[in-house]
Amino acid sequence: MSASSSLAEVLDREADLYEDLLDLLHEEEAALIAGNTRVVGECLARTETLVLQLRLLENSRETLVTQLTGRRDARFGEVPETATGSLGRARARLETTLPIVDVMNRRVTALLHRALRLFDTTLDLICEAAGLNHQYTAAGALTRGARSVIDRRA
To answer: Which residues contact 118 (CB under 8 A, 6 or more apart)?
Structure first.
């Protein structure tokens, strides 16, 4: 098998994995919106596996590009025949999938950040209500906080 056809297979496999990642991001988004933390955790674990597989394929792709161009620092566009045949189709598929994955990843990231901010705010309110918030002066000394009056007993 030639390096060019091997590269086409690697690109096709990368596109498959990115499409799997896209499906997983949709599932994670739905779980975040529904507040289903169990599913979010499962999605994150499966995402880690996909990312590891993508890194391995990226290493294979870089090796094949080096074989085809004779340069380790060569860009993918410098590989001969990247616009035609199976290599061209695989490249086009990957170039179509990646921007969609990027947008979806940004949406999920925004939802995660929002959920974490909500969690932090809730935790701060609970700690404040229970009198557990420690406050410090500019010099770093602990200030004496007011006692909690949640149950009307100091």
So the answer is: none
Collapsing DSSP to helix, strand or coil, 150 comes out as coil
Please write the tens of the pLDDT for every residue from 65-108. 888 888 888 887 778 777 778 888 998 999 999 999 999 999 99
Residue 14 placed within a domain: yes
In a domain, 141, yes or no: no
pTM for this entry: 0.75
The answer as to whether 23 is a domain residue is yes
Residues 25 and 128: their CA atoms lie apart, in Å, by 35
Residue 154 confidence (pLDDT)? 46
Question: Closest by alpha carbon to 18, among 62, 56, 53?
Answer: 53
Range of the domain at 11: 3-108
> Do 154 and 147 form a contact (C-beta atoms < 8 A)?
yes
Domain count along the chain: 1
Is the alpha carbon torsion for 104, 108, 110, 111 positive or negative? positive
Kindly give, in sequence order, each residue whose CB lies less than 8 Å from that of residue 17, ignoring residues fewer than 6 positions away.
Answer: 50, 53, 54, 57
> Within a domain: residue 139?
no
